[in-house]
Amino acid sequence: MPSPRPLRLAVVAGDAKEVGELVLKGYSRPIAAYNSCGLGLKETPEAVADEAEKLLGDNFRAVKLRLGYPTWQEDLAAVRAVRRRIGDGAALMVDYNQALSLAAALERGRMLDDENIDWLEEPIRHDDYAGSARLARELKTPIQIGENFSLVSSMEAALAAGAADYVMPDLERIGGVTGWQRAAALAAEHRLPMSSHLFPEVSAHLLAATPTCHFLEYVDWADRVVREPLRIVDGRAVIPDRPGSGVVWDDKAVERYRV
Ligand SMILES: [Mg+2]
Fold this sequence. Notes:
8 helices, single chain, alpha/beta, binds magnesium ion, four-stranded mixed β-sheet, TIM Barrel, five-stranded parallel β-sheet, 34% helix
């Protein structure tokens, strides 16, 4: 067996000249990913299930569904339609994008507790850590927050409040690679599974160097401007065997989309 390849990220200056190299404490390996390219609110539960099936395709084993329909009955109908379609073997996460009051989150969370949901993401205002802590205590489904952590200090405050079962910092908002590494250490200290938010091309590397690595949020948004889009095989993102982040820009496409 070949020895594991260390993770090396190129460090670039403002003028995009490489000025150094950062070796992450981890090794290149496939990272479990869920498809987050859609599943917004739709007219009917069947339409949601159709899209979930398409997103799962041959390569994924997990998808994320947006909730926050006007009534809890519609939330439940969407979840059940998707679960029926994707089967029990696939992971299903749900995301409220901060849509609920605490009272509504308790009500809808209890209603969803027996629906085999892998996490309940941002049910209430992202910075209501006391409210989120109550949800984490009272609901069976794990509470996921973190895309709105602004620097590691807010993640520290959230974890001190017991506001989450899982965390998913955003590479940009948490403070880049340095912020991510601090966040990963903090998650490890609290023994909380840590996922990523967006930027899958770079986040995959960082998750491979995250002690409590959980899930990569996969979106295909960069596919139009990179030469080789991030590959997902058997539900896992394959970290490319190229220098730095492994991203090779399609210069013509970048030029076309320049504003
Ligand atoms: Mg989210």
